[in-house]
């Protein structure tokens, strides 16, 4: 299960709408508390959304202790969708991606608004929402019980939130010395993320598709 969750979490971690807001909040008037508030909201958002889909699979599948019969078909459909989306991202990778204009407001954001914004971004970003749904269903259909589901959820959230946590925590320790490196990181992610995400999606889709076919 953990091997299946890593690619899902990496898609979230490498998404520009995950990393760029986490860097922009560090340019606010109170960067340390604002960054930490954004990180807290991001982690809570990822955990809550993923847990919802764990519980959905629990209700539909009849419990967390036994894999439901339809789990393989869900993986086949999800794997095919991920491969198709990965191919699309690869074919359109040449398009330039820029930060949405509404992100400019992050320069004046407060810690409370940063936490709420992070929660909203988890739900509003289709890519993040889909990955959390896929992770929740993957965790809930493994038949590992409540303890195993909790372990899987914690592991997924830790990896998915890592690219937001690293700059925020590093800035909390090092301060303004990281301003230029973080800006370069944001610019690089805007230029290169499409190819990276495309490759991860295709590999992930093939793995999920294989596991679904193997389980029939």
Automatic annotation (TrEMBL):
> Transmembrane ranges?
6-27, 34-53, 73-92, 113-139, 151-173, 194-213
Q: Which domain of life is it from?
A: Bacteria
Q: Which Pfam families match?
A: SfLAP
Q: InterPro entries under this entry?
A: Gap/Sap
Q: Which UniProt keywords apply?
A: Membrane, Transmembrane, Transmembrane helix
| Official protein name in the record | GAP family protein
């Amino acid at each position: 299960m953990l091997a299946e969750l890593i690619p899902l979490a990496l898609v979230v971690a490498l998404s520009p709408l995950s990393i760029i807001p986490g860097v922009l909040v560090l340019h606010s008037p109170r960067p340390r508390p604002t960054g930490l508030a954004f990180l807290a909201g991001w982690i809570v958002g990822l955990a809550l959304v993923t847990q919802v889909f764990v519980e959905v699979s629990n209700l539909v599948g009849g419990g967390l202790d036994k894999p439901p019969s339809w789990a393989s078909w869900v993986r086949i459909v999800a794997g095919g969708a991920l491969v198709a989306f990965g191919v699309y991202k690869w074919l359109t990778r040449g398009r330039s991606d820029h930060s949405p204009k509404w992100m400019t407001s992050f320069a004046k954001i407060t810690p409370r608004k940063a936490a709420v914004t992070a929660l909203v971004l988890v739900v509003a970003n289709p890519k993040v929402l889909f990955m959390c749904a896929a992770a929740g269903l993957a965790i809930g259909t493994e038949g590992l019980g409540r303890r195993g589901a909790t372990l899987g959820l914690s592991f997924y959230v830790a990896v998915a939130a890592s690219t937001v946590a690293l700059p925020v925590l590093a800035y909390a320790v090092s301060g303004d010395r990281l301003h230029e490196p973080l800006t370069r990181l944001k610019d690089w992610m805007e230029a290169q993320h499409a190819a990276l995400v495309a490759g991860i999606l295709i590999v992930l889709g093939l793995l999920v598709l294989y596991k679904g076919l193997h389980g029939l």
